[in-house]
Amino acid sequence: MTEIERAIEAALFAAEEPLGVEELARFLGDAPHDKVRQGLEALSDHYATRGLRVVERGRRWHFETAPELAHFLRRERQQVRSLSRAATEVLAIVAYHEPVSRAEIESIRGVQTSGGTLDVLMEAGWIRIAGRRDVPGRPTIYATTPEFLDHFGLASRRDLPGIAELRATGLLDPVEEAFDALMGADDGREEILGEGDERGGPHAS
Amino acid sequence: MTEIERAIEAALFAAEEPLGVEELARFLGDAPHDKVRQGLEALSDHYATRGLRVVERGRRWHFETAPELAHFLRRERQQVRSLSRAATEVLAIVAYHEPVSRAEIESIRGVQTSGGTLDVLMEAGWIRIAGRRDVPGRPTIYATTPEFLDHFGLASRRDLPGIAELRATGLLDPVEEAFDALMGADDGREEILGEGDERGGPHAS
Amino acid sequence: MSADRLPFAGEDPAGEGQEDAGTEDGALYLELDGWEGPLDLLLDLARRQKVDLRQISILALVDQYLDYIEHAEALKLELAADYLVMAAWLAYLKSSLLLPREEQEEPSAEELALRLQLRLQRLGAMREAAARLMACDRIGRDVFLRGAPEGLRIERKTLWKCDQYALIGAYGRVKARTAPAVHMVRERPVMTLESALDRVSAMLGVTLDWMELREFLPAHAEPRLRRSALASSFVAALELARLGRAELQQDETFGALRLRRVRR
């Protein structure tokens, strides 16, 4: 390895941008251009089979990693996360009502649904875009995927419990009623005020 | 050149920070650590005479340019912060004696050390707080960081210039210890010297 | 003074705050020749003897130091004070060294001198180590890292988790939330104001005597109805008083409330 090759190698490595022959020559104390070019060729040959490459791009040279090693340089890290309450609701609505548009989902949920929620469900692979509804505005409609059935252990969408079953299991009870049921009947024991004579209000005898 | 060497070469080249054997192994799909280590040694040998080096600094590895090419590359990029004389002395004392308390640093230098000097070194990322000495007052103790080794081109603290000789000649031992040794192991008469209570025994590691 | 402890340079301003600023241009250290404090100064003087620190003559060192102090009147005051403390200590050390051995007190001058020598050696060693450390191949000065590393990428992939129960439960929740709400008010044992008004005025019509409010309540009502009746009857009594059809009397706060019909 010649001195000029070593210097070129170091300069290409330390440079923040690709370097042309002229720039390199100036770096190396006005080395002759053909010497620089020879050095670059020699380096390019040396690195041809290594993890790095010395390559020319638009008359400027730089180091890069060998393209077939790209997969080593990107590591995947898996992370298990529970679906948010909102996303679970949207998923359930898509499952029960598919195909369904976002506006329909919102009207069933009674709240606005962020696009991010649908994205999460698509990223999870549980819903997909199933075309467009043939109404004004042609909204996108969503449906569940085979992976969805798979993940939730359902043979088909028909396995989802019907409204009648949901009601029987109490899953359709209005919240207030279910709450009252849990808190016990109204039997007056929880009245805050006791009897008038015990307490002596202004009108008590 | 083995496949693993190529992958290590590419990973070290692309990384923004020095990489340890464990990290590299994880990037390479949980490669065995000894294979990674072998690969690093092979690369280090390959590059030993080139314009770049593959070097170990505090158990982490990175690429850097060969020091003798500095004159080509220095040009307009002087990025090294210049340290005051006090800071260089404090840094040396921490490096050669670590872990060491401020009182110990001061006792070696014979002058008070401003907190600012330690701050400058901590801001540079070269020293860190390494806990507290288990003596009355529980003084904070300081030690060097992997970045310190990195910056000064040291593979480990063993590579600190002259540390072996300093240790062999007892120049890293506290004065009192050296004094006792010279005076023939006196039995605590120089407890009056007062430094015994400040320091938790020999601080050279 | 404690004879065995070397005086330190004083406050930081005199010590190194200035040095950070002044080392390079030499503004402050020019006159001090790079010296920072007593120990530093001694080390420098010792080095000028151009001998191994282990073999320096403490006596010669002391002479040089005292000589230096004499000529350094222009020193900064704080520094000078420190130097003088050191000078006093060294003068003491010198006299001890010159005195016959028998007359010396403990610790002996030799011991003090040895300790001073050991300290100077250690400081000298660190000075040298610092210089060698700074001469290492430093990143950004002697060696350079890659100019524009693309970095290793870690791509996070999320594995979403949800189960059937949560899914169906969520649908139930949505349905329940958006189902048309039907509100049912259960029948409660109350006496309305209207019926209390009727009842109180009817009972007042029977007598001209004072009656306690309590006597207007239905006698065998269950407790909750009784409470409701009490409240309604009280409001009814107020209403009748307002209309001028009844008068109210209460002797004391919280006392029994009585009412009777107003004669017309």
Q: How many strands of chain A?
A: 7
Rounded to an integer in angstroms, the radius of gyration calculated over CA atoms of chain A is: 35 Å
What is the straight-line distance between the termini of chain C? Answer: 112 Å
> What pair of chains forms the biggest interface?
B-C, 66 and 58 residues
Mean pLDDT of chain C: 74
Could you list the spans of chain A in which at least 5 consecutive residues all have pLDDT below 50? 185-205
- Count, helices of chain A: 11
User: Secondary-structure element order of chain C, as H and E?
Assistant: HHHHHHEHHEHEE
Q: What can be said about the biggest beta sheet of chain C?
A: 3 strands, antiparallel
Order of helices and strands of chain A: HEHHEEHEHEHHEEHHHH
Mean pLDDT of chain A: 79
Q: What multimeric state do the chains show?
A: heterotrimer
The strand line-up of the biggest sheet of chain A is: 1-3-2
Short description:
Chain A has 205 residues and is an alpha+beta fold. Chain A is 45% helix and 18% strand. Chain A has helices at residues 3-14, 21-27, 33-47, 70-73, 85-97, 102-109, 115-123, 146-151, 163-168, 175-183, 196-199, and strands at 19-20, 52-57, 60-65, 74-82, 100-101, 127-132, 140-144.
Description:
The complex is a heterotrimer, with two copies of chain A (205 residues) and one copy of chain C (264 residues). Chain A has 205 residues and is α+β, with helices and mostly antiparallel strands. Chain A is 45% helix and 18% strand. Chain A has eleven helices and seven strands. In chain A, strands 1-3-2 form a three-stranded antiparallel sheet. A three-stranded antiparallel sheet of chain A has the order 5-7-6. In chain A, helix 1 crosses helix 3 (33-47) and helix 5 (85-97) crosses helix 7. The longest helix of chain A is centred in the first third of the chain and has 15 residues, at 33-47. Chain C has 264 residues and is mostly helical. Helices cover 51% and strands 8% of the residues of chain C. Chain C is built from nine helices and four strands; from the N terminus they run H-H-H-H-H-H-E-H-H-E-H-E-E. Chain C has helices spanning 12-22, 29-32, 38-48, 58-71, 77-98, 109-134, 164-178, 193-204, 223-242, and strands at residues 153-161, 211-212, 246-250, 257-261. In chain C, strand 3 (246-250) and strand 4 form a beta hairpin. The termini of chain C are far apart. In chain C, 33% of the residues are buried. Chains A and C meet through helix 1, strand 4 and helix 5 of A and strand 1, helix 7 and helix 9 of C.
